């Protein structure tokens, strides 16, 4: 059930993004003849009075179709309600509306969490350090058998207590144990067992085991009846998430070789979402907000086939006083779409082969 919840979350974010494009067009009177979730063969469709709504076989995104370049369309090519015939500002609103919709949705999710569950007030520490995620089964932690959701209760025979110092102690031990065997005691459900991990040195010689670490415990919430406080706290969290994601993309661009392996596709996102839905349901809403912001940031990048790439064409058109040649734009966008789909397939295959049940299948 948790997997279905995670898939539903991912598809809902795609739906919100495409709905932003669709509403921005329709509210301006611009024709939009297709609204699709996914790509490829149609699994389900409904023909409305003006628009065909459909689900498609490859759930790697979605699209809103316009009749501008449809050879079967019976709309006059000079019709002012075709997207291509609208002023640059109108087209920019339609193109950027998906990103705006994801950002607004993320903020609404955070407001909903703070209004319903409460505002984070303190943290109740429990013994050990949590492992929310193992970045790859091929890194030191993965090879040693550490899994996402484990609790590290001791390192090198030293018990990790229920306090703020446990995380720093563990991280310092890992960093200082490059190429040295480091005993860890793990708790997984009711089971407690030992593993030996050998941290690998990074470019600076600092030991890394390839996991995310977090304090073990639960956030304590307090109810607030002050709408201004709820909106303000949600805005602070929203800003922190945006800066976190932008920082991640900056790190990826500046140090691609070391960070590229951390890029994840939809399979990994579903896995994380399923783990959160199963073990930390209270964190599901912030996770949804984070993925929604991430989707917005990715789409605003000035890359072909993304919203940012189309906005870049509009900027060039505004500077030139006329659009770039139609054939050039189509070639760039088609090439970009093929590359993005290719990257998506690679990420799906890689992340699928790293799933625990797939690994166990290969070992049998």
List the helices and strands and how they pair.
Elements: H1 2-26, E1 34-47, E2 52-65, H2 88-116, E3 119-134, H3 140-144, E4 151-155, E5 158-159, H4 165-175, E6 182-188, E7 191-197, E8 200-201, E9 207-208, E10 211-222, H5 227-254, H6 256-259, H7 266-279, H8 284-300, H9 307-320, H10 326-353, H11 356-363
Antiparallel strand pairs: 1-2, 3-4, 3-10, 4-5, 4-6, 6-7, 8-9
Helix pairs in contact: 1-2, 1-7, 1-8, 2-5, 2-8, 2-9, 5-8, 7-8
List keywords for this structure.
364 residues, alpha+beta, Pdz3 Domain, 2 domains, six-stranded antiparallel beta sheet, two-stranded antiparallel ribbon, 10 strands
What would you call the shape? Answer: elongated
Helix % is: 40-55%
**Rg (C-alpha, Å):** 24 Å
Number of helices: 11
Which structural class is indicated by helix and strand composition?
alpha+beta
State the total count of DSSP E strands: 10
Taking pLDDT < 50 over at least 5 consecutive residues as the criterion, the unreliable ranges are none
Mean of all residue-level pLDDT scores? 84
User: Biggest β-sheet: count, sense, barrel?
Assistant: 6 strands, antiparallel
Approximately how much beta-strand content do the residues carry?
A: 15-25%
Series of secondary-structure elements, N-terminal to C-terminal: HEEHEHEEHEEEEEHHHHHHH
Intertermini distance: 26 Å
Q: In the residues, how many domains can be counted?
A: 2
């Amino acid at each position: 059930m948790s997997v279905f919840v995670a898939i539903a979350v991912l598809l809902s974010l795609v739906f919100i993004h495409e709905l932003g494009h669709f509403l921005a067009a329709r509210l301006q009177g611009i024709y939009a003849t297709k609204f699709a979730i996914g790509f490829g063969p149609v699994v389900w469709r409904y023909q409305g009075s003006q628009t065909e709504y459909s689900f498609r076989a490859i759930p790697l995104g979605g699209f809103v179709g316009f009749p501008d370049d449809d050879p079967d369309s019976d709309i006059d090519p000079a019709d002012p309600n075709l997207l291509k015939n609208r002023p640059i500002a109108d087209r920019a609103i339609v193109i950027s509306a998906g990103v705006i919709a994801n950002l607004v949705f993320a903020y609404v999710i955070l407001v909903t969490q703070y209004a319903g569950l409460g505002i984070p007030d303190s943290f109740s520490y429990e013994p050990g350090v949590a492992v929310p995620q193992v970045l790859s089964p091929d890194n030191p932690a993965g090879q040693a058998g550490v899994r996402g959701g484990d609790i590290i209760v001791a390192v090198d025979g030293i018990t990790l207590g229920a306090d703020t110092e446990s995380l720093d102690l563990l991280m310092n031990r890992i960093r200082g144990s490059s190429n040295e065997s480091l005993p860890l005691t793990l708790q997984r459900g009711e089971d407690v067992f030992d593993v030996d991990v050998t941290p690998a040195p990074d470019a600076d010689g600092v030991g890394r085991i390839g996991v995310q670490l977090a304090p073990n415990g639960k956030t304590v919430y307090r109810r607030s009846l002050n709408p201004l406080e709820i909106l303000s706290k949600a805005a602070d969290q929203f800003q922190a998430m945006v800066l976190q994601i932008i920082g991640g993309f900056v790190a990826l661009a500046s140090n691609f070789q070391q960070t590229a392996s951390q890029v994840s596709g939809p399979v990994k996102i579903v896995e994380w979402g399923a783990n959160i839905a199963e073990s930390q349901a209270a964190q599901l809403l912030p996770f949804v907000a984070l993925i929604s912001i991430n989707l917005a940031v990715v789409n605003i990048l000035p890359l072909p086939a993304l919203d940012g790439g189309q906005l870049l064409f509009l900027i060039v058109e505004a500077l030139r006083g006329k659009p770039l040649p139609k054939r050039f734009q189509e070639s760039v966008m088609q090439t970009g779409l093929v590359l993005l789909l290719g990257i998506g397939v690679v990420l799906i295959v890689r992340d699928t082969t790293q799933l625990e049940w797939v690994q166990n299948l290969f070992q049998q």
